[in-house]
Give the backbone structure.
Amino acid sequence: MSDNSLPMRPTNTPFDTIRHEDERGAYWTARELMPLLEYSTWQKFSEVLQRAMEDCEKAGRPVDEHFNLLVKNPSPKGGRPQTDYRLTRYACRLVVMASRVGGDVAALARTYFSDMVDAAEEADIAEWQQRAIRSYIAKGYSLEWAQTRVKDILARNALTHEWYVRDIREDEYAILTDQLHMGTFGLSVAEHKALKDFPIVKRGKRLTYRGDLPPAMTMTELALNTLASIAARELHIARDSRGHDTISRDVDDAARIAANARRELEEQAGRPIVSRRNMVQNPDGGLWARLPNPDDPDGESEYPHDRWRVSRAACRLSGRCAAPCCPCAT
């Protein structure tokens, strides 16, 4: 299934007037898109198409599938064949970004093409989501946590894709990630890992925390993490930001949005959202869900279950829990 199989929402934009259909679905041609993006010569627009194709390749997408070369025959009056491209919705979005056109035209084009969803990618994502959820449940997480984590992964991937095509170097990802995390939670990624008692390892001459933070986050922490990623991506698109300085400003603004949500929730719930609970050590599903919450009002769980490293498989096989403190003990 191609990305053009999704039905189009009825609209009255200029981009609807140049939309075509064939056996592969909806498409647009570069020659017809060119004047709508306020380009008057094919030579100039060809440079835009080239940048868009490079961004497509960087994103790991098949360029030929999204930018299908068309060579139109000359008219009966003669002349050279004319080069054109059959563009998918995704290709049009990249062209709009690469064109750097401004004003109302840019806003309309970004909204029109950014809202379109790749149906093939959607199907692949749906299949991956189910596999990922099953995998997390098998590790002891609850269904609700697993679903929240999957949404967080998708939001993060969408955000880093925007960074990739908006001239952010890969070595800047960690800086922007920490910046977004600090603004959202009030502490850095490393400080958050320290709070959750991550193991410390030595890499070369440097001490660092082993493991990724998101699998250790609570469901509420993950939800805020997802909100921060979504907000940052939306600001990048709405403002057509490019380069580290403007992307960094978007990240700061997105972090403030997420931080305000965190503070409001903390005020209403009467407790901090940033948690010392390490969900890798203390998942919230299966038998683990019956354990006391480490975030209890006394600040210390009555049963620090993570010290025992209980094997749920051993519990099931033997009929007796491997840890005396576990409520499943028989």
